[in-house]
Amino acid sequence: MGAASEQIDLVAHGLVKGMPAAWLAGRESDLLAPLRLLAPGTLPEGPPPNVDRRGIAAGLQRANEAYGHPRAAELAAKLADPATAVVVGGQQTGLFGGPLLALVKAAAAVRHAEALEVAGRPAVALFWMATEDHDWAEVESATFLGSAGLVNFALGDDPAPLAPIGLRRVGPEIENLFAALAAAFPSERFAAWSARLAAWWKPGALFGEAFAQQTVALLGGRSPLMLDSMLPELKAAQRPHLRRLIEERAAVEAAYAAAEGRVVARGFDLQVAPQRGASPLFLLRDGARRRIEWSGGDAFRLRGAPAGIGAEPVADLLALLASDPSLISPGVLARPAIQDAVLGTTLQIMGPGETAYLAQAAAVYPLLGVAAPWTALRPQVLVFDARQREQLAELGADLPELLFSPEKIASRLAVRAGGGFVAERRGAAEQLLEGLRAPALALDPGLEKPWTKTRDTLLGALDAFAAKVEAAAARRGGVAQQRFDHLRQATRPGGGLQERVLSTAWFAGRYGGDFGAALLEQLALDPRHLVLVDPHAGRSPAG
Fold it and tell me: What is the predicted pLDDT for the residue at 381?
């Protein structure tokens, strides 16, 4: 599994911190209750909750056959069986598949389900596509890495603010993005992949459908069932649970407030700001998804509604839910419990940021009578191929240094290029300044402060000059410097985490359409260590 041998501890390097780090260390687990964090290397315990999933399974078969999933019927039939464990991951349906972490979540759900199957327990993986979200900024762009740096492909301003992403269709401007993509990445492999992308992300295509088709194509027969959160059968199954959140609104707010108090008392920051008087639900009206806020005992308002629209009876809201459950959707704090209520989830896969807000979201599980699932932190991935590994070794560096202390590599390269002479003489300058201290203080002890200021000023100026000399040497550093710059940009693009910055589609364009298979094969599930994936493993670098 993977060609890399480094064990990069994510907690030690601050890539998992705060509450998720405490949970991995076995602390603060009561804040998550009734949810349970899955310890690395273990399987969820206990039988699946007894939930009737037959309606959802039928809808998923229909939808996933349309997405091109080769095992849609088989997996849907397995889902309909109440004895089957359900493993769920999810993400927004971003342009060109969203950032790499979205594909990692899908692959992690698959690997966890496969681990259960190996242990003799039937399991199926689902990927929850958050199509009810209306955050256009989360989905409208994709970042690729070109020879000259990062290239962002964006659809532009929001054409329909507050409209759920699941109702959005790709506009004609997508053709301009594909033209720009062809100009920026003219290789045959990228052109072939772009042609496949264009078949999914074409004018008129729904975001959710394009995202699902791309994910299924990358993961093939091992793909999870792709679950659109606006699927009619799913919305019908949610109706009684959404109704209870409305009817028990006072108890819901009290439960959230109590959970928030426990989190703050332990010294952790709240991931979702408290909103007293606001429900965890949204209502879709006139194409806009707005938060429901309670107004008095039996009335509600819509946040940001046009002027002149006052409070409405809660009875009318319940009537809307009864007639059309697609109009009401859960927000971030209600979604986990609603998801698990209708799916009977055994294990949910969450990122560190998502896991941090579960301490608040967990509050409504007992209120809804929902059997709480196990929770696993998703693995974090770095794609780093054998050729890049060789280049890094030629620089005399290792991957942890490249990721977390690149300035040390830069300094060594500057010395090799002849730019270290200033730094080499810094010690002599420091000694000279130190030699001035004793005779100065012998004349007047009050000269201590002026001497300290003089030393700091001169050494600071010398360090600044040394940095400029090293930068000049780096510019003349030739191949070594270029390789270092490319490696640093590939592993920490724009200074961020690779899996959060670079688009899933970029990796498939660079490494070929079987990138998803390589990710599945090499993905390890221990969230404490960075997973290194080499897409070339098992084939020639040119393959």
Answer: 97
